[in-house]
């Protein structure tokens, strides 16, 4: 028997069998107390999870838990983060969510096709959406599953135990919760229509069945008879989650809903009084500190959700600006850096697009204003050359200038909710297979579009955005220094080969006998430079293990760049950049062409190399950095600021590019059978 520390703040109860119950202390009047209780329960819930350990599969719970419940659990962890701001579990949650997303990004993973029903997929999808929005989707999804009667009771129509002969008249908390939130979403979407207000009120009233005494939530179909199965142990979590969300979408429900969530939370905390640590949660919240003898992921999740839902007034509601239609943001991703000049992006929500990806390109082309399927020039939004580039954002290329728009877009479109201040959005870059963190200021619920940060090539200033690329060392070759050498000699020239973002070879400009401030025209006009650089590139590519011989070197990788000291020099625009405003000068070639700026991957690699003493690049970095935290890299069109961080052992942990983005407009694209109008 463990000996409890007796303190005033811990409720102690002696159970019939002599064990001591130590319920979780909860003062619902104190935000800190709620967060602290949530933290304890989140920890205990995650103690059931081992998917982050060697040999186990990220996102799976061990038996007897089905896959869908793991999805629900990570949904609860996303809620936990949303409510408490505690980021402790974000990495394992992100790992699990991304691991399980499946080849088509739809939470239909091949391993689960046998056990997965629509609603299983829905739980993972809901977890993904709830990091995002309490979307209308919930309603659409649930209407197909259950039935609703005149008392706003929701029945479970999917239980096979009654031989499919009749509607199953069992009522489960999660069904009611899903319908409640669905109705609240519709209420909100219809700008508060009386029809939906009435339905929301009806659903709230209908919840009474699950609160038979003292406003404490009960899984009435199984809790009292002790027959709740492993799945059913978790259902109360979803009702609590969705009741709280309802107060955001339909604020008039707040008092009625909190009148139930508050006593339920208090009771749930008391029921967390069992197991080996004396604080594992049972499900019978009605029983006070007399633990019901059960433990599990579901019980912990239910307690966690109902307790943290009491913080709902403290957190911002979703910004649902894009429900219905095809919304898009058009950001001026002010930059000179990726492929030459300033670019714009049009961003789509995947859910607003047709499921059939083959149908996308003509739609994108139409919107951009490239020739439509019938050869007609449509009056679109793009400007000629940008056409294929912004389309690439969603599913192929990885151009950093567009990456920078994703974070602000996610906030402005309501995909993610952010409090005022600095927001960090995690972006899964499917092309690099990497997580990018984008940090930027949020003002009035929107990504700030003004700030003191100027980028060359963009008029005025805009908010500073930091997409940070995590763990991008060795993406292609497995090593940050793919040859194993700090410097190699290729064609008699000292070269440093780095794989950060993508493989890149650095040489000193003077190593090939040219001035480092040469502009693209000068590179092209040089009689032998192209040939020299290309043969260095091919030799290095083989040494880096990218290709087996020089002849088979791909055109796109590795990139090659010349570096030199931070001298003042003339830019493409004719303006002069001062040497003391940059740390070094870079001239990169991409697919055989001198780049008009610096490809983002080259910028990342440069920042990494600039920090590694003894490398070719470091040797040419000015002793005193312009900005001590970052590398300020000069290129033919101006400069770009990149940060690189290393861990204690000298491994690159992440690199950051600073850029700006401004939201230009959002709107609808109308698709017609015979073409497009914008
Ligand atoms: C797995 O995650 C838990 C948190 O739930 C953490 O305590 C543990 O250290 C992690 N294990 C590994 C191997 O990362
Ligand atoms: C699918 O199962 C295989 C074999 O057990 C495992 O290696 C893989 O990681 C699983 N993938 C997912 C997404 O669960
Ligand atoms: C389902 O049908 C079988 C065979 O017809 C019957 O034995 C069983 O009792 C039925 N179950 C229910 C719950 O009605
Ligand atoms: C809600 O109000 C906004 C702003 O007045 C309007 O644009 C929108 O169409 C309305 N939505 C519905 C569904 O009526
Ligand atoms: C819709 O939801 C938003 C976000 O929570 C809220 O501010 C707004 O008041 C809601 N609209 C109505 C009509 O209640
Ligand atoms: C999006 O939000 C902005 C700012 O609140 C508002 O002006 C605009 O009308 C909204 N757009 C839609 C489509 O609701
Ligand atoms: C980034 O900006 C450059 C310059 O306009 C453009 O050529 C390139 O295609 C852009 N990348 C993307 C993905 O838009
Ligand atoms: C590393 O440098 C040594 C000479 O110092 C050379 O023999 C070796 O080939 C180089 N390794 C690679 C992979 O280039
Ligand atoms: C770059 O560094 C090398 C090695 O220290 C040095 O010899 C060279 O002069 C530097 N180049 C410039 C332009 O400063």
TrEMBL record:
Pfam families attached to this UniProt entry: Glyco_hydro_76, PrpF
Keyword annotations from UniProtKB, A to Z: Glycoprotein, Glycosidase, Hydrolase, Isomerase, Signal
E.C. numbers: 3.2.1.101
One of the GO biological process terms: fungal-type cell wall biogenesis
An example molecular function term from Gene Ontology annotations: isomerase activity
Chemical reaction(s) catalysed: Random hydrolysis of (1->6)-alpha-D-mannosidic linkages in unbranched (1->6)-mannans
Signal peptide stretch: 1-23
Family in the record: Belongs to the PrpF family. Belongs to the glycosyl hydrolase 76 family.
Protein name per the record: mannan endo-1,6-alpha-mannosidase
Taxonomic lineage of the native organism: Eukaryota, Fungi, Dikarya, Ascomycota, Pezizomycotina
């Amino acid at each position: 028997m463990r000996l409890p520390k007796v303190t005033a703040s811990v409720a102690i109860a002696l159970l019939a069998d002599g064990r001591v119950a130590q319920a979780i202390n909860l003062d619902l009047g104190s935000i800190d107390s709620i967060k602290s209780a949530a933290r304890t329960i989140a920890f205990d819930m995650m103690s059931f999870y081992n998917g982050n350990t060697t040999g186990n599969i990220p996102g799976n719970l061990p038996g007897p838990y089905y896959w869908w419940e793991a999805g629900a659990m990570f949904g609860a962890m996303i809620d936990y983060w949303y409510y408490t701001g505690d980021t402790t579990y974000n990495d394992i949650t992100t790992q699990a969510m991304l691991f399980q997303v499946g080849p088509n990004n739809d939470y239909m993973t091949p391993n689960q096709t046998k056990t997965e029903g629509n609603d299983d997929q829905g739980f993972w999808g809901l977890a993904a959406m709830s990091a995002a929005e309490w979307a209308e989707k919930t309603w659409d999804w649930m209407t197909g599953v259950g039935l609703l009667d005149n008392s706003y009771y929701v029945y479970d129509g999917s239980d096979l135990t009654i031989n499919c002969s009749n509607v199953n008249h069992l009522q489960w908390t999660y069904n009611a919760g899903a319908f409640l939130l669905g109705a609240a979403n519709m209420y909100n979407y219809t700008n508060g229509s009386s029809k939906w207000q009435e339905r929301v009120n009806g659903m709230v009233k209908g919840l009474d069945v699950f609160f038979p005494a003292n406003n404490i939530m009960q899984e009435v179909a199984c809790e009292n008879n002790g027959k709740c199965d492993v799945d059913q142990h978790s259902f109360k979590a979803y009702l609590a989650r969705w009741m709280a969300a309802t107060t955001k979408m339909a604020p008039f429900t707040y008092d009625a809903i909190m009148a139930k969530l508050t006593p339920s939370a208090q009771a749930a905390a008391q029921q967390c009084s069992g197991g080996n640590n004396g604080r594992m949660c049972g499900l019978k919240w009605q029983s006070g500190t007399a633990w019901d003898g059960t433990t599990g992921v579901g019980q912990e999740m239910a307690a966690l959700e109902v307790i943290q839902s009491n913080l709902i007034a403290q957190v911002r509601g979703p910004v649902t600006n894009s429900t219905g239609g095809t919304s898009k943001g058009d950001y001026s991703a002010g930059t000179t850096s990726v492929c030459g000049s300033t670019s714009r992006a049009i961003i789509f929500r995947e859910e607003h697009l047709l499921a059939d990806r083959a149908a996308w390109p003509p739609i994108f082309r139409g919107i951009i204003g490239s020739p439509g399927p019938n050869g007609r020039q449509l009056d679109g939004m793009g400007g000629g050359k940008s056409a294929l580039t912004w389309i690439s954002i969603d599913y192929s290329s990885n151009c950093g200038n567009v990456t920078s728009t994703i974070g602000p877009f996610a906030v402005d479109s309501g995909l993610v909710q952010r409090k005022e201040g600095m927001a960090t959005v995690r972006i899964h870059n499917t092309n690099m297979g990497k997580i990018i963190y984008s940090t930027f200021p949020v003002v009035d619920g929107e990504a700030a579009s003004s700030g003191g940060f100027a980028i060359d090539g963009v008029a005025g200033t805009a908010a500073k955005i930091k997409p940070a690329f995590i763990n991008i060392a060795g993406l292609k070759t497995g090593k940050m220094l793919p040859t194993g050498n700090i410097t190699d000699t290729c064609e008699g020239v000292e070269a440093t080969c780095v794989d950060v973002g993508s493989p890149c070879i650095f040489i000193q400009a003077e190593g090939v006998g040219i001035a480092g401030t040469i502009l693209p025209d000068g590179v092209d006009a040089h009689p032998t430079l192209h040939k020299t650089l290309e043969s260095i590139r091919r030799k290095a590519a083989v040494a880096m293990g990218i290709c087996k011989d020089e002849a088979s070197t791909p055109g796109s990788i590795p990139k090659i760049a010349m570096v030199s000291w931070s001298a003042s020099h003339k830019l493409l625009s004719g303006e002069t950049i001062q040497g003391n405003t940059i740390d070094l000068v870079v001239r990169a070639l991409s697919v055989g062409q001198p780049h008009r700026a610096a490809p983002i991957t080259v910028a990342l690699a440069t920042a990494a190399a600039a920090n590694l003493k003894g490398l070719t690049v470091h040797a040419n970095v000015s002793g005193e950095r312009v900005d001590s935290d970052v590398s300020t890299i000069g290129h033919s069109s101006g400069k770009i600021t990149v940060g690189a961080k290393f861990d204690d052992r000298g491994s690159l942990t992440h690199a950051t590019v600073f850029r700006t983005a401004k939201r230009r407009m959002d709107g609808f694209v109308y698709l017609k059978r015979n073409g497009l109008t914008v």
